[in-house]
UniProtKB/TrEMBL annotation:
This is IS3 family transposase. Gene3D superfamilies: Ribonuclease H-like superfamily/Ribonuclease H (3.30.420.10), Winged helix-like DNA-binding domain superfamily/Winged helix DNA-binding domain (1.10.10.10). Coiled coil: none annotated. Residues 288-450 form the Integrase catalytic domain. Residues 105-136 are annotated as: Disordered.
């Protein structure tokens, strides 16, 4: 598909991706291209320079294909990474080679002759000599093969249909079960199974036993966090426990176990409105802090249970993402924010003067709100009108709370939800690990930093 474009056009697109401050998807959209095609051009250029963008018509040998597959398996590369590393232009070629090798071994990787094959007449095979003219050794060899073939043909009837990986896996499983009774060479001949494919399938069938204990730990971590953790967080938990494990292995084992994070992906959409006049946007989307109580963010969100509503007003410390105070109530009145502020101010130490960022809701423009903030000598900051990304850290917490708790549970009353939110916030602060906090929970990160200081 990429052969339609000349080298100069590809180079222009790749340089725009690498040197301009534009995302890959945006570059693809500007040129009317698929973003996966642009990504392949960029990866080839990084690996092979301009030569990786030139048209290429190559027939790969079976040895080269096997080298690509072995490198990909050994180094844990994805098919896209292997294509870029070996400058393979045909989309999906590596996946096809992998299937061919697993089903037929090295011989299946030999290039196929295109077009119709010429008709060749096989010479008639000579009739077997009479039994009285064949040696005793030949008769014994034939008898051994017939016994092995007969045993192999009976074996699949007793196989567990859940074992193995397709036809090759079933054949390998049957041969493995008969190795103690018949020579391996005769069994492979009866099964029409290459030796290399047999050993590969036996190794693959043994993976489940090798990772049995690891699978139990993965399921325990998944259940302990009620399905909120995906393979990345589970990998981090295992590494904290001293397990040296690759995240792709955890991902593969979770797929085998049928485990998948129940958290829905979160997306943000915003409208860039006019600048508000209540307070300037002093935060300027700087969602990091060098110490506790340096920058705070706050907002209000709504929940509905059986026609009743519950409102949550939390304050987050951007130093570690910890919810330092929150207030819930059935109505979004100012007392909701006032109660939350008093709890947050109680956490301050002498000399702490945090920047408090919010949106332009009426609560935060209320005279009482301004008076409470001024009394604590705290600087106010507000998002631009209609732009929720200016308070993305707080919006992200709301999305996580609803995805990991609210949407995964059923509630009969608002009081039940109110108690559950308090429990979840405690879990979020003390137990839920964050990647950007070096795999620690917010409280663990703050405690570790204070102890180091």
């Amino acid at each position: 598909m990429s052969n339609r474009y000349d080298e100069g056009f590809k180079l222009l697109v790749v340089q725009q991706c690498l040197h301009d401050d534009t995302s890959l998807r945006e570059v693809a959209r500007q040129h009317g291209l698929d973003h996966s095609l642009v990504r392949r051009w960029r990866d080839r250029y990084r690996q092979h320079g301009v030569a990786g963008l030139r048209k290429q018509y190559t027939h790969h040998s079976a040895t080269f294909k096997l080298q690509v597959l072995e490198t990909m398996w050994r180094d844990g590369l994805s098919q896209r990474q292997a294509e870029a590393l070996f400058d393979i232009r045909e989309l999906g070629a590596i996946g096809r080679w992998e299937r061919q090798y697993h089903s037929g071994g090295l011989t299946a990787l030999e290039p196929k002759r295109k077009g119709r094959r010429p008709m060749t007449k096989k010479p008639p095979s000579p009739p077997p000599p009479p039994d009285d003219e064949r040696s005793q050794e030949e008769l014994l060899k034939e008898l051994a093969y017939l016994r092995a073939e007969n045993a192999y043909l009976k074996k699949p009837r007793c196989l567990d249909p859940g074992k193995g990986g397709g036809d090759a896996g079933q054949k390998a499983w049957a041969v493995q079960g008969l190795r103690h009774e018949h020579p391996l060479a005769l069994l492979l001949r009866a099964a029409e199974l290459p030796r290399s494919t047999f050993y590969y399938q036996i190794q693959a069938l043994g993976v489940g036993d090798r990772y049995a204990s690891l699978k139990m730990r993965i399921r325990a971590i998944y259940d302990r966090h009620k399905g909120r953790y995906g393979y990345r967080r589970i990998t981090a938990v295992l590494r904290q426990a001293g397990e040296t494990i690759n995240h792709k292995t955890v991902q593969r084992l979770m797929h085998q176990l049928g485990l998948k994070s129940l958290v829905r992906p979160k997306r943000y959409r915003a409208y860039r409105g006019a600048e508000g006049c209540a307070a300037p946007n002093t935060l300027q989307r700087r969602f990091q802090a060098q110490r506790p109580h340096q920058r705070w963010v706050t907002d209000i969100t709504e929940f509905k249970v059986n026609g009743q509503k519950l409102y949550l007003s939390p304050v987050m410390d951007l130093y570690n993402g910890e919810i330092i105070a929150f207030q819930t109530g059935p109505r979004p009145v100012f007392d909701l924010v006032k109660g939350m502020l008093k709890k947050a101010f109680a956490r301050l130490m002498p000399g702490d003067r945090p920047l408090l960022h919010s949106d332009q809701g009426w609560h935060y423009r209320h005279p009482s709100y301004r008076r409470l903030v001024v009394e604590q000598r705290i600087l106010r900051s507000m998002s631009r009108k209609g732009n929720c990304l200016d308070n993305a850290a707080m919006e992200s917490f709301f999305g996580t709370l609803k995805a990991e708790y609210f949407h995964l549970n059923r509630f009969d009353t608002v009081e039940q939800l109110q108690r559950g939110i308090a429990d979840y916030i405690h879990y979020y602060n003390h137990h839920r690990m964050k990647q950007r906090l070096k795999g620690l929970s917010p409280v663990q990160y703050r405690t570790q930093a204070v102890g180091a200081g």
